[in-house]
Amino acid sequence: MAFDTIGEVRNPADTSEIVGTYPIQGPADVDVAVEAAGKAQRDWASRPAVERAEVVLAAAERIDGIDGLDELLIREQGKVGWEASFEVGFFEATASFYAELAPGLDEGEKLVDDGMGVLRLFQEPIGIVGAITPWNFPFAISAVKVIPALIAGNAILVKPASFTPLTVIRGFEAIADLFPPGLLTVLTGSGATVGRRLVEHPAVRKIALTGSIETGRDAAAVAGQTLKSLTLELGGNDAALILDDAVIDENLCGSLVGAAFTNTGQVCFGIKRVYAPAALAQAVADGMAAILDEYVVGNGLEPGVCMGPLNNRAQRDYVAELVADAEAAGGKVRYCGELAADPERGWFLRPTIVTGLDDSARLVREEQFGPALPVLAYDSLDDAIERVNDSEFGLASSIWCTDEDRAAQLARRIQAGTTFVNNHGVFALDLRGPFGGVKQSGLGRELGVDGLRAYTESHVVSTRHL
Ligand code: NAD
């Protein structure tokens, strides 16, 4: 292959290491893959959903047995060990969840059965799906699209981000032979060419994209030309709202830290801003900082490291810029933990807590997607809720308190796809609940029953009695 058709993936913890390479494909490769997908999908869709689910479960078992997949994920993405194992294990958990829903696809649903006739509803496959995924959870976010799409009877073409294509390539290539040839294909290359062609292609009938708001808007505009179905999981600026009856102890501060700093803060539904009553804000910041002071930042393959680098230089520089801006705006910046790696070799930042800001600071308004967290003080709860909602984002959110009933009522006032109570972030995700954003955070839902329906078209069979 010629030099310019190969892309390199570098280890964000040590950029001198080339972790692997991937083909830089182009629009013509997309067209070939779409044609093969079309043929494979007809055969696949003719099988009962329960049979399709069995094949997907066999795929999950095979993925579980791939040696070193989590290590590859650490080396290409920058995760630490448990984060990578959790992510690889997500395939199996998601496959088991959706497999349970497969019988419902075969049986359909009887909506009406009266003297006049019978109305039945079936969920049919859409056809060919394009999945476009980001670099923060390359494997899990691809799995959450691939699994329901396949069980629902579709073909799927996956385009991972160019920073992190290797785990997806290795994992999905290892299972591709379980399916009709061409049913599950990984396409690699830039978003502007390969991603764009997938969105443009008239035979691709659905796009499921996770990424930035800008990319989501572009995809929506292009997909509009061929009236495709769309699921968009875009950015977030999740607020954690602490109520005045919360007990600020190690348990609460540890949960906040976990929900904000897991995956080095690169979680779409991680905590990105904390609102605490003015009398408690300092205690919250101090409690979190005390926990973060124990953090060792470095290469996820090294023992004792609990936070890895940012995935790429642009993201590291962006987060550093937001922290510098916060400091210039009068914020008190507290760098925590210890860096156990050469900052010249990787995209490292220490976990950082910032206090004393108002909501106009960029660190509060923008999606930092990194390990720097503003802790903000509020005087009245009504005002705090207004500030939480004063954002173009609306992915997730959380309320922390002792009175759960009060929290459940307040939750309804927050503009978000999910409001967790005394919980937040990746550990809080329940596969049974539909997940997605409001406002600019996205369109549609993944997971839950909605997540399977998102890969189907409703088909009503209306029978009139003679
Ligand atoms: P990105 O938008 O730059 O890229 C996402 C994917 O889209 C990549 O595969 C990219 O190659 C592709 N792409 C880029 N331009 C395209 C185009 N014009 N047409 C088609 N495809 C195109 O996002 P990123 O920087 O990789 O990821 C970070 C963002 O993703 C953050 O904003 C984060 O919040 C968001 N995210 C959201 C969720 C969620 O579930 N809501 C989950 C993870 C990440």
Give a written overview of the molecule.
This protein is of the alpha/beta class and 466 residues long. The chain has two domains: 6-234 and 441-462, Aldehyde Dehydrogenase, Chain A, domain 1 (3-Layer(aba) Sandwich); 238-430, Aldehyde Dehydrogenase, Chain A, domain 2. The chain is 39% helix and 23% strand. The chain has 16 helices and 20 strands. Strands 13-15-16-11-10-17-18 form a seven-stranded mixed β-sheet, sandwiched between helices. A six-stranded mixed β-sheet has the order 7-6-5-8-9-19, with helices on both faces. Helix 2 packs antiparallel against helix 4 and helix 3 packs antiparallel against helix 7 (166-173). The model has no long low-confidence stretch (mean pLDDT 97). The structure holds nicotinamide-adenine-dinucleotide. Residues 132-136, 141, 159-161, 191-192, 195-196, 199, 210-212, 215, 218-219, 233-236, 268, 367, 369, 395, 437, 442 line the site of nicotinamide-adenine-dinucleotide (NAD).
